[in-house]
Amino acid sequence: MTWGAADNFRAYSRRAFLGGVLLAPTLAFARDAQFRVLVLSNGWHSGIVLARNDVPEAIIPEIADFPHARFFEFGWGDAEFYPAREAGFWLTLRAAFPGPAVMHVAGLPDHPARLWPNVTTLSFAVNADALRRLLAFLRDSFDRAGAGRAVVSARGIYPFSLFYPATGRFHVFNTCNSWTAQALTAMGLGVSLGGVNTAEDLVARIRPFAVAQ
What we know:
single chain, 213 residues, alpha+beta
């Protein structure tokens, strides 16, 4: 899938949120906070984007694979369907049932709003503690099998992206949009995002918290 082509949809998802703790809305979404977290949606898929300076390699060591990136986009999805160049009927059907997952990391050469102007890009102002919580959620999304970092499992959707093994189980009720909702909840969004698994629902619920980019 490319962000500008919904007909090339690749479904993503995420495991159940660790602990299920809902933080106070002021924790993450203070409008004068210094950091920015971006949420992208093309109507099917959603993902999280962070500036390179906000992603410590000690926490997400996989970013070392993208030395020239200015931003990182993180997504999660079915281990077979997501990386597939051509997803036929049976692969699409299989992805509806619980199965292993992968993380997709894209080392973006520019701001996503300039790369994909037709994609919904929402910006959220967060403080250092909220960013730390989000980074912990992203860190725990990689399956590193006890090693220091995850091993590349496949080339990515873009020339500047790669797939890695992920934790959790993908299925039709636990999609990329569920994963994004769980990431924002972990960060401190003070609105219930339980049950989210479509991009449309996600964007409608979080848009009121967005700030100017």
